[in-house]
Structure formats: C-alpha cells, structure tokens
From TrEMBL:
Tree of life domain: Bacteria
One function term, GO molecular function aspect: single-stranded DNA helicase activity
AAA+ ATPase domain residues: 334-480
Gene Ontology terms: cellular component: exodeoxyribonuclease V complex
NCBIfam families reported for this sequence: recD_rel
Stated name of the protein: ATP-dependent RecD2 DNA helicase
Keyword Phosphoprotein (UniProt): no
Catalytic activity: ATP + H2O = ADP + phosphate + H(+)
Length: 737
C-alpha cells in the first residue's frame, strides 16, 4: 500500500554516486524510518516528503521503499538555514548560510530563485559567486523535475543525471523527439539503450531516426570487428534483423545516407560495399600518401659503403648477421618504404639496431615509434634511443570544444622532421592512426615498418601490415631463422611451432613451458587459483606476482574468463584488510594495491611523473598501473602507471578502469611479461584460433603455463584465422600505382 511520509533526513547510511542508490534514516516525528531509493544530493537536515511502501528486507528489517520523493522547500528562517547549511546548494557552506539568512530572512529562497545577484549584498559574496550559486540553485530544481519525469520512461536516475548534464532544459524535448541523439552525445549510452528509451517514449518502429541510427550502429559494429566496409546486402539484412523491420525500409533510408555522403557506396565488379565515410577516406588517403612518398624521388644511397658499416656493427656487437638479415638492413636503408616481419627471436631488434647504427654513421636523422606506450618503452630499452608512441610523435591534442575532437599537431602543414622513421609492432597500427601518421610524413622521409604478421591484427579497423605486404609493392623481408633459443628454453620454439600449426613440445626437463591438462572451466579456474595461492611452491616462486606475472585469458566471460578470474585472484593477491581502503564501482571493488588497466584511450587525463614531477596528459587503452591510494571522502583513486605516472581518477572516470590480474589476449598485445598463465578452452570455434594463442604465448619472456584441455589446444592450433577482415588498402595502393 502506497503511503506518504514527511520528515527530516537524519543521516545518510549509504549512497552510490554511480547509480544514486541511497539508504537514509528519516526522522518522522521522532521515529527513525529507513528509506531506500535512487536520490541525488540528499543531505542530513533536509526535509522531505516521500511516497512509497514499507517492505521487509531479509537482513535489514523494515524499510520504506520510495517511489517518489520531494524535497520540502522550507519557509521559516530556521529551516531555510538548515537547508542551506546542509550543503544542498553548492558554494554555500554553514557560515555563508547564516550570513545569507541573517540578511534576507524568510525571503532567502525567493532571492536565490529570482534575483540571485542580490546575494552580493552579503559581505564576502562577490558578483561571480552570486551568479554561480543562483545557477546551481536553478539547476537543481530543474534536475529534480526532469529526473522525476524521465523515470516514467524507465530511465534510471543515473542515466537521467547524465542526460540532464548534457542537455539541461532540452532534455525532455530530445528524449521525446530523437533519443538516438544520445548515442553521440552521452557517454555510456549506445544504440541498444537509446532504442529502449525510444520504444518506451513511443517513437515509431520505422522512424527514420531509428532506421538511420540502426544503420550507423551496424556499420560501427562491423568497424569494431576490424572491417573497413560491409557488403550492402549484408548490412541491410543485419539492420532489418536488429530493428525488426522490413528490409525495403532499410534500403530506402540507406539510399538517403548515400546521398548525403555519410555512408559511401562503392560498386565494384563483384561487390556493393558500404563504408563509413571516415574509414573510406582513411584507406584512400593512406594509399595516396604512401604512393606519393615512394614516387617522390629515389633515395641516393650509392655512396653508402654497406659492407663496411655492417661489418663495423657486427664487430661492435659481436654478432654475425645472416644473409637475409644483411639484405633486410640494406634494403631498408635503400628503400623509401619497406617492411620487415618475423616471429620472436628472429632478429627484428638486431636489425633495427644495425639500421640506426648505419643511419647515425651517415648522419641521417632517425625517429623511432610504436603504437602503444609499452611497445615504445621496450623499443627505447632495446635500441637505447628514444622511442615515442605514434600518438605522442604526432603531438596529439584533444579539444573539448569541437565535440571531443582528437587532432594532431603534426600533420600535412607541420610534418615530422626526420629522414627515417621506424615503426615497431606495426601489426597493431589501425587504418585511422596510419592515415594520421602518413599525413605528417615529409616527402623526403623514408619509412620502415617492423612487425609480426602472425600476431592478431590491430584492435581498430583495418589490416594495415597485412595489406601492405599483400600489395606486393614494397620490399618485404620475412625473417624465419630463430636466434634466441637457449637449449632448454621452449617458449620461442613452441611459439614458432604453434605458428606453423604444430603442437608445442612439452619436455619434462624444460622449466619454462608447462601444460596442465584439465577439463571444464571450473577446474581450469580452480587450477589457476591454486597455483596463484600456492605460488611459493610452484615454478612461479621466483616472480613478483604483481609486477612480473600476468594471466592472459582468451575470453572475457565465463568461469575462467577475465572478469571472474580478476575477482578471485584479487581476493588471493590483494585481499581486503582494514588497513586498505576500498571503493565500490559497479560490480568491481577497487582496493589499495590493486593492479588495474585503463581500457580506453583518454587523451585528456592529467598525470605527473613521480620522479621528475613533469606533467602531461593522456592514459591509453592497455596501460597498466597500481592503485596507491584511495581517498574515500573525495571518492578518488590515485594510480601509478608504469611505475612513473601518477594519475588521480575521480569517480566518474572509474568506468575506464578494470582490475588487471587477468587481461584478454587483445589487451596484452604489445606488452611482455616474465611469466604468464593462459587458460585453454574448447569450443568457440573460429574465435579461439592459432593467432590468438600465438599472440598470447609470445607475450612471455621466461615462463608459460597453459592450463586446460588438450583438445582445446589442438583445435586452437588447427584453426587458422585467414584474413577475414574486409579492407581495401592493398587495392587502393594499386589504384595509385
Ligand atoms: N645473426 C645472429 N647471430 C646470432 N645471434 C643473433 C643473430 N640475430 C639475432 N641474434 C640474437 O637473437 C636474439 C633475438 O634477437 P632479437 O631480439 O633481435 O629478435 P626479435 O625478433 O626482436 O625478437 P623479439 O620480437 O622476441 O624481441 C638476440 O639475443 C640477438 O642477439
């Protein structure tokens, strides 16, 4: 039965600022009643009136479940003072509250609402503060109103708050006319969520907003799978299925998108392709710029005495480059654009070092770069020369004004000053970054792309390294002699075996490659947890499990997927303790000393180098760090990334973080760890393939432990992910030949 209670908030027992779930005690005529519901900004001392029902909670007893809550605007000066001093209106604390109420008496709230500038009559309040307080007061009233109205459309308060923050007074109007606008405007709202809202608001199934949004959503999911285009027929079918409408309606709306150029249709002899405009342009521009580069002028390398320089390099480094390696060095220096690909331990780094030695000797200015922070760091260490991430090399900037726009300081008008640029880990470079990079390359500059073609392709769209090789336009050296191969070390031997489709060798005496045979995800998980728990009695004993060790799982979900493993391993490696602060975020508990990973690029977040105190911006997808401190009051996390960058995460940014005791293979690309555990599963045909296993195994420097099913291992090794991505870079390069 719905009842109404009226009283004063006595204390807030719990408040989750994420979803606004709140538990509070309310003093109703001297009796404390516990209310639960979703509220923004309740403070002790505030008077409320709430409609709801009494429920019996198994653990907490009787509670009042609130359906509707209104803050009673006080009228007498004491109540107004209590209301203001509670901090309800940002910018006014207890002292100011008293001064304001003393000055305006029972007219205070009227002044706040209608003529806030008069607040500056109070000593110590300037015009600016008066304006800000007035705006805040107005904002709160509007927000309460809108949050309430949105709840009718089943929009929870946490979303309602995000919407209000974005649209303010226009919120209702936008929700009722085109909720699909939310997808672009409000972080965290995707097509599915917007569509649910649209349906509850009563938007027509066949509304053009809905169809067009569905088309764009489907195109972007094809882009997320790595393709740069999708066949028209396939697109129409997919959209029709997702939206539950007739395919003809999709064709009709798609035609309009072709007309305004936001989707590009390309008809070839055998295909009708649909592209998102940006990706279409990226592939064409990249091809044009790259071909422009090689046509600019041939390099004059006649004068270089390669034999002498290579010999010298060999003497200094006490190494003899083999024939292929020497040819790779010479070809790389002679060519405007060239490629070196090879698996682990085949000499890629050795060749890069030889090349930069020669470039240094002949006085050419070279630049080293790699797609991720970790890969760039490794490149710096192995070459003893500075290597930057491609983003940093391009001097990325992120502007808030222009709709969260990422731009690069280095571009066609301000090119990179270098004679020779080497990109390592090229398999991770996607078409958008490649396009931005090529725009910033001078005509005189030569390029060398180094990578391992058998690794998983880039997370973003495109298949750049593979397309460059298959175009057969640039000199390519494929390294296949394995040099780093200690007698008893099996990691590299086995990585190459896996890559060739053979089962790994499992020798008793080898102490760096283990396979623990077990079936079912439950047992796999139990085995992993056992090893972590008893690691002092296992071969992992020589490692620091926070720094040197990584669990790399092919799956996100499931018992032995990343999410579950993270929770369980956290309990073992960093259990709760009264000396360690914690913060709850969604279903994740972040605790001091936890290992975490940034899961999306954030170009703006500020960091301070803990050694040099240098300041900078940007933490990127895949960066890992440790939570050093949690400020429970301010609800912030202090994280140190890569032992050097200190970053403070406010509550709303925590959705960009995951625990990272376990990470996916995709997130592990470009990183290396001393010891890793990989769970091996059966099933998921196609997804669990050879490249995935190969990429995971090659992340380990000293020890690999595979745990799972032999049949799963066999089928992964058998399953080859043949270049399934739909991309056109190779074709475009030929168009410009
Ligand atoms: N021609 C050679 N003769 C002897 N040793 C070599 C030769 N080429 C490379 N090596 C050695 O093999 C090891 C692996 O080489 P390098 O690190 O260059 O390979 P890589 O392809 O970069 O491997 P990874 O991708 O695993 O880092 C190094 O210790 C290197 O000194």
């Amino acid at each position: 039965m719905v009842e109404t209670i009226k009283g004063t908030i006595d204390r807030i027992i719990y408040h989750n600022s994420d979803n606004l779930y709140t538990i509070a005690d309310v003093d109703v005529n001297d009796i404390l009643i516990t209310i639960v519901g979703y509220f923004e900004n309740l403070k002790p001392g505030i008077e409320i009136e709430a409609d709801g029902e009494y429920i019996n909670h198994i653990k907490y007893g009787e509670q009042f479940k609130v359906e509707k809550l209104e803050i009673v605007i006080p009228t007498d000066t004491d109540s107004i003072y209590n209301y203001l001093k509670s901090g309800m209106v940002g910018g006014i604390g207890p002292k100011k509250a008293k001064e304001i109420v003393d000055h305006f008496g029972d007219k205070t709230l009227e002044i706040l609402e209608k003529d806030p500038m008069r607040l500056s009559e109070v000593k110590g309040i300037g015009k600016k503060t008066a304006l800000l307080v007035g705006l805040e007061y107005k904002n709160q009233g509007n927000m309460r109103d809108i949050v309430l109205k949105l709840s009718k459309y089943n929009i929870k308060p946490n979303y309602a708050k995000k919407l209000y923050d974005e649209y303010k007074g226009d919120t209702l109007n936008i929700i009722q006319t085109n909720p699909y606008a939310l997808i672009d405007d409000v972080y965290g709202i995707g097509f599915k969520r917007a569509d649910q809202i649209a349906m509850s608001v009563g938007i027509e199934m066949e509304s053009p907003y809905r169809i067009i949004s569905g088309i764009k959503y489907t195109l972007s999911s094809c882009y997320r799978d790595g393709n740069t285009y999708i066949l028209k027929d396939e697109l129409e079918e997919k959209v029709a299925k997702i939206l539950g409408v007739n395919k003809d309606i999709i064709s009709h709306n798609l035609a309009n998108l072709f007309l305004d150029d936001s989707v590009i249709l390309e008809v070839t002899e055998d295909e009708e392709r649909c592209f998102l405009k940006e990706l279409y342009e990226c592939e064409i521009e990249s091809a044009k710029n790259l071909m422009g580069l090689i046509s600019y002028n041939e390099k004059d390398s006649e004068e270089i005495d390669f034999d002498k320089l290579i010999k010298k390099y060999e003497e200094i480094n006490e190494i003899n480059l083999d024939k292929t390696q020497k040819e790779a060095v010479i070809s790389a220096i002679k060519s405007k654009v060239s490629i070196i690909t090879g698996g682990p331990g085949t000499g890629k780094t050795t060749i890069i070092n030889a090349i930069i030695y020669i470039l240094g000797s002949i006085g050419e200015k070279y630049t080293l770069t790699a797609p991720t922070g970790r890969a760039a760091k490794r490149m710096s260490e192995s070459t003893k020369s500075e290597a930057k991430t491609i983003h940093r090399l391009l001097e990325y900037e992120y502007t808030l004004e222009d709709d969260h726009f990422l731009s690069f300081g280095k571009n066609e008008d301000n090119t990179i000053d270098s004679d020779y640029i080497i990109i390592d880990e090229m398999s991770m470079v996607d078409i958008s970054l490649f396009d931005a990079f090529l725009k910033a390359v001078k005509n005189k500059t030569s390029l060398l792309f180094v990578g391992d073609i058998d690794q998983l392709p880039s997370v973003g769209a495109g298949n750049v390294l593979s397309d460059l090789i298959s175009s057969e336009i640039f000199p390519v050296t494929k390294l296949d002699t394995i040099y780093r191969q200690d007698k008893e070390s099996l990691i590299i031997t086995n990585a190459h075996r896996i890559n060739k489709g053979k089962m790994p060798i499992l020798k008793k005496e080898a102490d760096d490659f283990y396979f623990i045979n077990t079936i079912t995800q439950e047992k796999i998980k139990r085995n992993i947890l056992n090893i972590v728990y008893n690691y002092k009695n296992t071969p992992l004993k020589r490692y620091d499990l926070l720094k040197d060790f990584q669990i790399i799982s092919p799956l996100k979900k499931g018992l032995a997927g990343v999410s579950e493993l993270n929770k369980s391993v956290q309990d073992i490696l960093n259990p709760a303790h009264n000396t360690k602060n914690e913060i709850q975020h969604g279903s994740t508990t972040f605790r001091e000393n936890d290992k975490v990973m940034q899961i999306k690029n954030n170009y703006q977040i500020k960091w301070t180098d803990i050694n040099t105190l240098k300041k900078g911006e940007g933490v990127f997808n895949g960066d890992m760090g440790i939570i050093k401190k949690i400020d429970k009051e301010k609800q912030t996390l202090e994280i140190i990334f890569d032992d050097e960058k200190r970053v403070i995460y406010p509550k709303e940014q925590m959705e960009e973080l995951n625990l990272s005791y376990a990470i996916t293979v995709h997130k592990s690309q470009g990183s290396e760890f001393k010891a890793i555990i990989i769970p091996i599963f059966s099933g998921y045909s196609g997804f669990l393939n050879r490249n995935l296993l190969y990429t995971a195994v090659t992340r380990a420097k000293e020890m690999v432990i595979l745990i799972g099913e032999v049949n799963g291992l066999k089928s992964m090794i058998k399953s080859v992910q043949k270049n399934k991505r739909k991309t056109t870079l190779a074709e475009r390069l030929h168009d410009f030949l």
